[in-house]
Write a structure and sequence with these properties.
The chain is α+β, with helices and mostly antiparallel strands and about 130 residues long. The chain contains six helices and six strands. The protein has one domain (about 5-134): 2-Layer Sandwich (50s Ribosomal Protein L5, Chain: A).
Length: about 130
Protein backbone atom coordinates (compact mmCIF):
# COMPACT_ATOMS: atom_id res chain seq x y z
CA UNK A 1 0.00 0.00 0.00
CA UNK A 2 1.25 3.46 -0.89
CA UNK A 3 1.86 5.72 2.08
CA UNK A 4 -0.56 8.65 1.98
CA UNK A 5 1.77 10.68 4.21
CA UNK A 6 4.28 10.80 1.37
CA UNK A 7 1.86 13.00 -0.55
CA UNK A 8 1.46 15.34 2.39
CA UNK A 9 5.19 16.09 2.38
CA UNK A 10 5.33 16.76 -1.35
CA UNK A 11 2.29 19.08 -1.16
CA UNK A 12 0.12 18.08 -4.09
CA UNK A 13 -2.05 20.71 -5.65
CA UNK A 14 -5.53 19.49 -6.47
CA UNK A 15 -7.83 21.72 -8.47
CA UNK A 16 -11.46 20.76 -9.05
CA UNK A 17 -13.69 22.81 -11.31
CA UNK A 18 -16.88 22.70 -13.31
CA UNK A 19 -18.82 25.18 -15.36
CA UNK A 20 -22.43 25.98 -14.62
CA UNK A 21 -24.61 25.97 -17.72
CA UNK A 22 -27.41 28.55 -18.00
CA UNK A 23 -29.95 25.72 -17.61
CA UNK A 24 -28.39 24.47 -14.35
CA UNK A 25 -29.11 25.46 -10.76
CA UNK A 26 -25.89 26.58 -9.03
CA UNK A 27 -26.95 24.93 -5.75
CA UNK A 28 -27.50 21.58 -7.48
CA UNK A 29 -24.12 21.71 -9.20
CA UNK A 30 -22.49 22.61 -5.87
CA UNK A 31 -24.36 19.67 -4.29
CA UNK A 32 -22.95 17.35 -6.96
CA UNK A 33 -19.41 18.50 -6.17
CA UNK A 34 -19.98 18.17 -2.41
CA UNK A 35 -21.19 14.58 -2.93
CA UNK A 36 -17.76 13.63 -4.26
CA UNK A 37 -15.65 16.15 -2.33
CA UNK A 38 -17.49 16.48 1.01
CA UNK A 39 -14.80 18.48 2.83
CA UNK A 40 -14.19 21.01 0.10
CA UNK A 41 -14.83 24.74 0.32
CA UNK A 42 -16.38 25.41 -3.07
CA UNK A 43 -16.18 28.91 -4.51
CA UNK A 44 -18.18 30.52 -7.29
CA UNK A 45 -16.54 32.76 -9.87
CA UNK A 46 -18.72 33.88 -12.75
CA UNK A 47 -20.13 30.65 -14.18
CA UNK A 48 -17.61 28.27 -12.61
CA UNK A 49 -17.53 26.39 -9.31
CA UNK A 50 -14.09 25.39 -8.09
CA UNK A 51 -11.87 24.62 -5.15
CA UNK A 52 -8.23 23.80 -4.63
CA UNK A 53 -6.51 21.83 -1.94
CA UNK A 54 -3.12 20.52 -0.87
CA UNK A 55 -4.77 17.58 0.88
CA UNK A 56 -4.76 14.35 -1.06
CA UNK A 57 -7.62 13.10 1.13
CA UNK A 58 -9.96 15.16 -1.09
CA UNK A 59 -9.75 12.30 -3.60
CA UNK A 60 -10.55 9.57 -1.09
CA UNK A 61 -14.18 9.08 -2.16
CA UNK A 62 -13.08 8.64 -5.77
CA UNK A 63 -10.49 6.08 -4.71
CA UNK A 64 -13.10 4.14 -2.70
CA UNK A 65 -15.52 3.99 -5.63
CA UNK A 66 -13.08 2.89 -8.34
CA UNK A 67 -12.24 -0.45 -6.77
CA UNK A 68 -13.54 -2.42 -9.76
CA UNK A 69 -10.74 -3.36 -12.13
CA UNK A 70 -12.60 -1.97 -15.14
CA UNK A 71 -13.15 1.44 -13.55
CA UNK A 72 -9.59 1.69 -12.28
CA UNK A 73 -8.27 0.68 -15.71
CA UNK A 74 -10.14 3.60 -17.26
CA UNK A 75 -8.86 6.05 -14.64
CA UNK A 76 -5.30 4.78 -14.98
CA UNK A 77 -5.43 5.14 -18.78
CA UNK A 78 -6.84 8.66 -18.50
CA UNK A 79 -4.25 9.72 -15.89
CA UNK A 80 -1.39 8.48 -18.09
CA UNK A 81 -2.85 9.97 -21.29
CA UNK A 82 -3.35 13.37 -19.63
CA UNK A 83 0.04 13.47 -17.93
CA UNK A 84 2.13 16.54 -18.75
CA UNK A 85 5.29 17.06 -16.74
CA UNK A 86 4.20 17.17 -13.06
CA UNK A 87 0.49 17.33 -13.78
CA UNK A 88 -2.36 15.06 -14.78
CA UNK A 89 -6.13 15.33 -14.91
CA UNK A 90 -9.35 13.40 -15.29
CA UNK A 91 -13.05 14.07 -15.70
CA UNK A 92 -16.13 13.00 -13.77
CA UNK A 93 -19.71 12.92 -14.99
CA UNK A 94 -21.49 15.81 -13.25
CA UNK A 95 -24.94 14.16 -13.30
CA UNK A 96 -23.59 10.96 -11.73
CA UNK A 97 -21.84 13.06 -9.06
CA UNK A 98 -25.21 14.57 -8.15
CA UNK A 99 -26.24 11.04 -7.11
CA UNK A 100 -22.96 10.48 -5.27
CA UNK A 101 -21.58 8.17 -7.96
CA UNK A 102 -18.06 8.46 -9.34
CA UNK A 103 -18.25 7.98 -13.12
CA UNK A 104 -15.00 8.58 -14.99
CA UNK A 105 -15.43 10.03 -18.48
CA UNK A 106 -12.71 10.10 -21.10
CA UNK A 107 -14.06 12.98 -23.18
CA UNK A 108 -15.97 16.09 -22.12
CA UNK A 109 -18.80 15.19 -24.51
CA UNK A 110 -19.54 12.06 -22.45
CA UNK A 111 -21.00 14.28 -19.72
CA UNK A 112 -23.96 16.08 -21.37
CA UNK A 113 -23.94 19.03 -18.95
CA UNK A 114 -20.17 19.19 -18.91
CA UNK A 115 -17.81 17.31 -16.62
CA UNK A 116 -16.18 18.02 -13.29
CA UNK A 117 -12.46 18.37 -14.03
CA UNK A 118 -9.85 17.27 -11.51
CA UNK A 119 -6.28 18.47 -12.02
CA UNK A 120 -3.51 17.01 -9.87
CA UNK A 121 -0.07 18.61 -9.70
CA UNK A 122 2.63 16.65 -7.91
CA UNK A 123 6.30 15.79 -8.33
CA UNK A 124 5.54 12.07 -8.63
CA UNK A 125 2.46 11.33 -10.73
CA UNK A 126 3.34 7.63 -10.79
CA UNK A 127 2.94 7.43 -7.01
CA UNK A 128 -0.46 9.10 -7.25
CA UNK A 129 -1.61 6.48 -9.74
CA UNK A 130 -0.33 3.75 -7.42
CA UNK A 131 -2.25 5.35 -4.53
CA UNK A 132 -5.51 5.14 -6.49
CA UNK A 133 -4.74 1.47 -7.18
CA UNK A 134 -3.95 0.52 -3.57
Amino acid sequence: MVNLNKFNTSKPEIIVQTYINPSEDTNKVSFAMKNIFPNSEIKLKENKLYFSSERFEELKKIREQIKSKATFAVLKKVLYNNQKMNMTSFLLNKQAAFSGVVAIVEEEEESPLGPIKIIIKNKDIEEIIKWFES
